[in-house]
Design brief:
single chain; alpha/beta; 13 helices; 9 strands; hydrolase activity; signal; Alpha/beta hydrolase
């Protein structure tokens, strides 16, 4: 093969395979990177890995870092790394996670209202932090309000469309684990309070997965048990702590299936989210090309881990009829899928106001 042909083939492979990495705390400032789950203020982080495990202090020194390039198909979880070192390491990781959650519980005890911000797939922590800051600038917080900036491993593509597409399928499963194994632990710490969850893109799946067990694919559940010793069906359920939970979903990268019980366990019936969830607000944007998977045929773009709820008004009609707590908002003026563009839309403030949030 000539050098010219080799170069062309190599370039094509790079484009198709893409360069993607795990979303770890590395892009946060140094103090946060080393201890991303330190709870020290009314505004704190909650940072989990692909399995929903909370990063302990000095995680990189003890667990090592994931690869830096071509990583989209290589798992990285704290529990798997600890397991390779023996039972003492696994127990130590569990003890540290329990301490992190206890610190959060103490900080949340006297909160009036709790805001939880959840980014989507293909976002690193630094980018998500910037968007979280913008959201906070829109809100007139009251005394003793607490903001939790939730970070999860939605992977981060460093290349073009092909890279985004390749990480999508793995990120969908990670979003479910981040919710059921991570965010749910936080929700179970909170009692008799109002909780407002604001998500973007696949962050909607993180939120829904925290509220009730998500429809894992059978293959993903089996792989997670085999390679990470995490049984997705043994997760502690969301406790009825008499909270009032409101969910606001920007550009939700989900579909009807995300509200269903998985068909390999039972018939495809709707999931129950409990009485604590009192409102679901979401955006509909037919001009969001990412949600449409850059296709013009809804019957095609609604497949492959559907994302049609965020771009097709018809997709939510059955959901509205079943749940009765769902309201959609028109975001057709937004010509992008990016988090910051949805936040800039004036209807975002309207959504907040309709949830009883004072805006600036």
């Amino acid at each position: 093969m000539s050098l010219k042909i080799t170069t062309v083939v190599g370039a094509l492979l790079f484009t198709i395979v893409g360069c993607a990495i795990h979303n770890t705390p590395d892009t946060l400032k140094t103090s946060e990177m080393n201890n991303p789950n330190e709870v020290s203020s009314r505004n704190f982080n909650a940072f989990v890995d692909q399995n929903g495990t909370f990063y302990p202090p000095n995680w990189k020194k003890e667990n090592g870092s994931p690869c830096k390039i071509y990583c989209w198909n290589i798992h990285y979880s704290l529990i798997a790394t600890a397991a390779s070192k023996g039972n003492d390491a696994v127990e130590n990781l569990s003890i540290k996670e329990a301490q992190i959650l206890e610190n959060m519980r103490v900080k949340l005890e006297d909160a009036n209202r709790v805001y939880i911000l959840v980014h989507g797939y293909n976002n690193d922590a630094k980018t998500s932090r910037n968007n979280y800051d913008t959201i906070k600038n829109h809100i007139e917080f009251q005394e003793n309000d607490v903001v939790i900036e939730f970070f999860w491993d939605g992977l981060v593509s460093k290349s073009s469309l092909w890279g985004d597409a390749k990480i999508w399928f793995r990120a969908t499963g990670y979003s479910q684990l981040a919710g059921s194994e991570g965010l749910r632990d936080i929700l179970n710490l909170i009692e008799n309070k109002e909780i407002i969850i604001i998500s973007h893109s696949r962050g909607a799946s993180v939120a829904l997965s925290a509220l009730s067990n998500p429809p894992y694919s059978k293959e993903f559940a089996e792989d997670t048990l085999e390679f990470h010793t995490v049984d997705v069906y043994q997760t502690e359920r969301l406790q009825d702590n008499k909270n009032i939970i409101k969910l606001l979903m920007l550009a939700p990268a989900i579909g009807d299936v995300d509200f269903r019980v998985p068909d390999h366990l039972t018939k495809m019936s709707y999931r129950e989210f409990g009485d604590q969830l009192t409102k679901i607000s979401y955006t509909v944007n037919p001009n969001d090309k990412v949600l449409k998977k850059f296709l013009d045929k809804p019957n095609v773009s609604g497949k492959f881990n559907p994302t049609d709820l965020g771009f097709d008004e018809k997709s939510g009609e059955k959901l509205k009829a079943h749940y009765g707590i769902i309201q959609s908002y028109d975001f057709s003026e937004t010509k992008s899928h990016k988090f910051d563009k949805y936040i800039e839309n004036e209807n975002f403030k309207l959504m907040l106001s309709d949830l009883g949030v004072d805006v600036k």
